[in-house]
Amino acid sequence: MAEHAAAVAHQFDDAEQQRGAAELGMWIFLATEVMFFGGMFTAFTAYRWLYPAAFAHASRHLDVLLGGTNTVVLIGSSLTMVLAVHGAREGHRRTLLVCLALTMCLGSVFLGIKAIEWR
After folding, report:
1. Considering its fold, how many domains does the chain have in total?
2. Helix, coil or strand: residue 37
């Protein structure tokens, strides 16, 4: 990996203060994600418990194959994006471009499956 001094933004006194602010920001982001998804799963569980017949009826309309395929496509696109970032950091332009193209293709497949599911 290329070694270079990180630039310090004008609002920080030094790199340590900037890193501390970035770390705090990440922890705040993670906490808000936990609260958001915790609330969503709590609401889902409450409604599933309160309305079991509605959930049983709705589950008959789910396509497990499309849902499973979409999950694999989504995870695959996450992998190709991580590989693109890695390629960029290592200075491998070809890896970056190929992985970005794959990510865009997988994103299009994901949206296509969503269009089929919502037809």
Report:
1. 2
2. helix
- DSSP letter at 7 equals P
Asked whether the whole model's pTM tops 0.85, one would answer no
Residues contacting residue 82 through CB under 8 Å, at least 6 positions apart? none
Query: Which DSSP letter does residue 13 get?
Result: S
* Under 8 Å between Cβ of 31 and 41: no
Same domain for 95 and 78: yes
Q: Where are the alpha helices (DSSP H) in 51-63?
A: 52-59
Q: What is the mean pLDDT of each run of 10 residues along the chain (119 residues)?
A: 69 91 96 98 97 93 93 98 98 98 98 93
100 in the same domain as 77:
yes
Residue closest to 76 by CA, chosen among 107, 30, 38: 107
Q: Angle between the 15-50 and 52-59 helix axes, to the nearest 10 degrees? A: 100
